[in-house]
Amino acid sequence: MDILTASKLIEKRELSPVDLVKKTLEKISEENPKNNSFITVSGEEALVAAKVLEQELMKGKVRGALHGIPIAIKDLIFTKNIRTTMGSKVYENFIPDTDATVIQKLKDAGAIIIGKTNTHEFAYGPIGDRSYFGACRNPHNLEKISGGSSSGSAAAVAAGMVGGALGTDTGGSIRVPSAACGVVGMKPTFGLVSKKGVFDLGYTLDHVGPITTNVKDNALLLNSLVGYDPGDPYSLNTERKDYSLLIGNELRGKVIGIPSFYFDVIDEEVHAAVTKCIKIFESLHVEIKKLNINCMERIAEAQVVTIQSEAAAVHMHTIENHKEDVDSEVYERLVASQEVKGYEYVLSQIERAQLINEYNQSFEDVDILLAPTLPILPTDIGQREVQINDQKEAVRHALLRLTSPTNYTGNPSLSIPCGMSKNTLPIGLQLISKHGNEAVLYQFGYALEQNI
User: Fold this and answer.
1) What CATH class has 255-297+351-451?
2) For FRET with 156, which of 162, 183, 248, 252 sits at 20 to 30 Å CA-CA?
3) Angle, in degrees to the nearest 10, between helices 268-283 and 438-451
4) Which residues are known to be catalytic?
């Protein structure tokens, strides 16, 4: 059941929060052994919260559309008195004594924390098969990756265990698993959603955002998360908006840009699915314009330098003291990240404002950019090399190639399902716009969702 459907039933008192939590726990018990989406299920805590919210409902108090709705949380986001592991043996028994800002916002809105979802260890990987608690499997094909690092959040939504979940995104970690699992994932504008109480990977790249079954639910969940937080040094102090405001508005006269960078090396089935979506937008009287964004290679290189430098800084203690406790592949990547020179990081930050400005010049003539979310279909668990047409590429690099640029620039990016492969694996489409333009992305995403 999607969030808005459940919300309406709860408001009419046709569905109780307690019953919904019980049904959710039953569904998790049924599905989780198959795909390993959840690390920790907080059933007792969820039932206690549901009873309180049900009493409020009986007294006529409804906190909003999330009142009584179970939400899953990536196990990188601190939850008071609920284990938060970062997918690592290092934090296997860590229990925070405070909630992250986004968790407090969800609770204030009436949402119920149902459990903590699997993540590629420390969120340092887009594949989702390197967690101390085991690989997260794709609900569409259990031999395939779910994508990462917000693997469990996307898989839990795709498997129907929850209607919504939170993920984090440093190089694509909301959008990659959303595309791989066939759900909707939003990486908002950098700083729009507080990162306070979220375990760091890249200080200037990390984003928190919603994963849901559909566009309307995604906008609803984002609305509950945004807001200035003085506890987050990167938090934006901007006017609050209703990000669902443009959903349903017609697109006639709008312009979509098709940047060549995102289409250079992609799987044929992915290309066919994305091309079909472009034609759908044309049928909605949207103008399609091909673009060259000349700074894309420099942005991609600067993003790699940034994430490596910042991850190495975050994990100095991990590298020095926990070699035996960290997955070997993740540990090797952390050690390799230390090889970035200080001057390289400084240069990547000095040129950042200019590169962001060059990237945003693309929007002078178009409303949004359209691109595949992933250039490939979900690969086998454990697979580390993939062939795209006649070229071989590392799976990790392929998964991040089309998503990581907007982590560096901070532009909002929405991944939505746009088709299935001949082997019934999901394909995702990525919509990108100017900073603060999430409502426009939802407008386009909803139009496609209704016509695909």
Assistant:
1) alpha beta
2) 248
3) 100
4) 74, 149, 173
